[in-house]
């Protein structure tokens, strides 16, 4: 691995520390190197500010002059709540900036690079670009398609069941897999479930036992808003963000009851008696979300898959079988031909305790 790739890999690992905590901003990492020695490191801070570059420059101080900067996304070129990062790099008098991938935000796209080059700074683009685009996928999807990235997590038996015929589901996977799920929740902006899961499991959808202080937003998708008002979600709605996506015919009294508890209500278009997934995700994108971790159930999983809105499949498979009378991980897709089936490409496998983790990327992922 070249030095450029090695330092960029470090910048990417730093940027991932911000995933789930910086939306609607991208989770960027930055490393500053002076004569082969790292003098500054930074990543986007909770809430999206400060950005990675000023954090690294603050740490580097005068050592940034004449240094090489590795950053996972093109430095911003517009003034928002903070000055442009490209200007900060120019002011620090760095010599070279290595950028993993350009920013598709029209306020930035190409402009950050132009500012650096106009100041006489050498710029190289494309080091570990594939990895960077994967890390920033949610941000890019929100900018380019108006919706967040969706990771669909399914914890199932070897034969693809998530519960017995009587509905018993706790626990199919072992504690190490469940701990891994909490870590994945923490790296997403929001955790999403369907109304059936909310009724059946009464989940809190929080990150536990990892020392996390900033909880992901909870999202429940329920056309009729028939979610227990005495459940765990209702009891914590005033303390941890909760978004309820419902249909236009949801009872007004339930809408007002949930609002009074502190929840955010989003009325979504309906299609064939179900919430329109495209409209729902567009509205969640407008809310600022970039990365959603969907944990089912089977009906919501099928809806998202049918709409072509699942960008990543995350499977935890346990070494037990529940049989055909068990509850399937994904509800009926009404497929008549294999060519109609959503296709995914395997990207990672790992043993997590006694269970198997396998991660798949959407085969026709947007560029």
From TrEMBL:
Cofactor(s) listed: Zn(2+)
Pfam families named among the record's database cross-references: dCMP_cyt_deam_1, RibD_C
Gene3D superfamilies tied to this protein: Cytidine Deaminase, domain 2, Dihydrofolate Reductase, subunit A
Keywords: Hydrolase, Metal-binding, Multifunctional enzyme, NADP, Oxidoreductase, Riboflavin biosynthesis, Zinc
Matches recorded under CDD domains: Riboflavin_deaminase-reductase
E.C. designation(s): 3.5.4.26, 1.1.1.193
UniProt xrefs under PANTHER family: 2,5-DIAMINO-6-RIBOSYLAMINO-4(3H)-PYRIMIDINONE 5'-PHOSPHATE REDUCTASE, DIHYDROFOLATE REDUCTASE FAMILY PROTEIN (AFU_ORTHOLOGUE AFUA_8G06820)
Similarity comment: family membership: In the N-terminal section; belongs to the cytidine and deoxycytidylate deaminase family.
Protein name (Swiss-Prot/TrEMBL): Riboflavin biosynthesis protein RibD
